[in-house]
Amino acid sequence: MWNTILFDLDGTLTDSAEGITKSVQYALAHFGIQETDLKKLECFVGPPLKEQFMKYCGFSEEQGQEAVRVYRERYSTIGIWENRAYKGIKEMLSKLCTRGYTLGVASSKPTHFVKQILERFELLPYFEVVVGSELDGSRTDKAEVIEEALRQLKIREYRQRVLMVGDKEHDVNGARRAGIPCVGVAYGYGSREELLKAQPLAIVYSVSELAAFLIEGRLERQDAVKPQETGQKDRLDLHRGRPLLKIWRVLYPVGIHFAASIVASLIVIVPMTVYALMGGSGGADAVSTIGLTGLMEILAIPFLLYFMKKDRILRGSLGAEGIKIKASPVLVLVLLLAAAALSDLLSQGMAVLRIPDLFPYYGEMTDEMYAQSSFWAVLAVVGVLAPVAEEMVFRGLVYARVKDYLGGRWGILLSGFIFGIYHGNMVQFIFAFCLGCWFAWLYQKSGNLLIPILAHVAVNVWSCILTYIPSDSGFWTWYPLLMVAEILIAVWGCYFLSQSYRKTGNSSQTI
């Protein structure tokens, strides 16, 4: 939930239509345009004035600037006071402050006028910050106004706890570009249809309904539309214009995994090395790769859970929670069989193409790692712990964040690519890229991170089992028949899974 609320001014806190429309009428008369129906001019309430004059009248930018100048001749002395606070607004703001909420105003109107109006209606003391546009015409875009409010409140990194309230589509769209949800108020100057099209978190129809929603979390009429119900693209418009932040958010989960390996090494190897230098037996050489890997995963998982929870809160606040498909016993069984079959077929296909022969170091490294530890230790770490941590990193965080910015298809491809690079050698890159894309597809379709985790566990467990079966075992006599069965299982399993997800629906917005 949110603890900071930003309000638009016109049409949200105050009924300012009379002063604005009469001042617009005055400006239009300056250009010889006579408009007697003030109702038609209510479209000027809320949006940046210069852009609205250009849109409404077909003015050039210079004419738009001149229209704003003439508009302010009347508005600054007369129109600003042809205004009133909506009934119940003051009481609502008082209750919100009493309950500890931080309040602010984010308006496209110049800050100078906003403060005058709030002071006139005795609303100014309720707000920690008041941000509007500049008199020179800069900072009129709603997203820019919101960003400045967040900067002044020093909460830019905590925007998942911020809510915007406004009456027009540019309020909703500006909030979305700033990465925060918006409640639309239909008692202002934006129509219900306009707000529905903009897809706010919710729509309220009176100040009392707004108060009930903000204070009690109660919504009497729910008109907010989920993105998947309207065909909206499967991405969230987060951090627009901040490419370095996007890259950082996608990649630092991988860094957490690497950092955990360094910490694990320091925890185990340093004390053992010191012990060996003091005359003890063993030392760093006695530490197995499997043991260090297990400790690394255990150290990384709590941090990964923390960042996934933060992402879940952010997407939930933007109304992008989606549908989570339950992992039924039948689906889990099919998934495990299909995953094991696909991985072995992929491995054998690479062997047929002689790809491992091109990189013999990979096979030697794997054999040495497995030789250091028992089967059960390898099964616990490689078969369970590693898949859980890696799926949290590469699907729960990397894939989900790429999808936020670029959509599901790019999320699948790029998360698979990064997953492949992470493994550090060409053989595993090809293997991890292919399976990583499949795991991401499973996550995209199911919305349930348990699904790719189980698939990854099946892949690694089956690989461990095959690795430890002696080469002279009679099992390999029947292996060709097993491969035929794997082909059938893989084809049927993938078909079954795709049909199951198609019936249940696509959950492209779920973490």
The H/E string reads EEHHHEHEHEHEHEHEHHHHHHHHHHH
Round the mean pLDDT to the nearest integer and report it: 84
Structural class: alpha/beta
Q: What's the helical proportion of residues?
A: 55-70%
Number of DSSP strands? Answer: 8
In short:
By secondary structure, the chain is α/β, with parallel strands linked by helices. Helices cover 61% and strands 7% of the residues.
What does this structure look like?
With 511 residues, this protein is α/β, with parallel strands linked by helices. Helices cover 61% and strands 7% of the residues. Helix 6 crosses helix 7 and helix 12 (329-352) packs across helix 19 (479-504). The longest helix has 35 residues, at 243-277. Residues 224-234, 282-286 and 504-511 have low confidence and may be disordered.
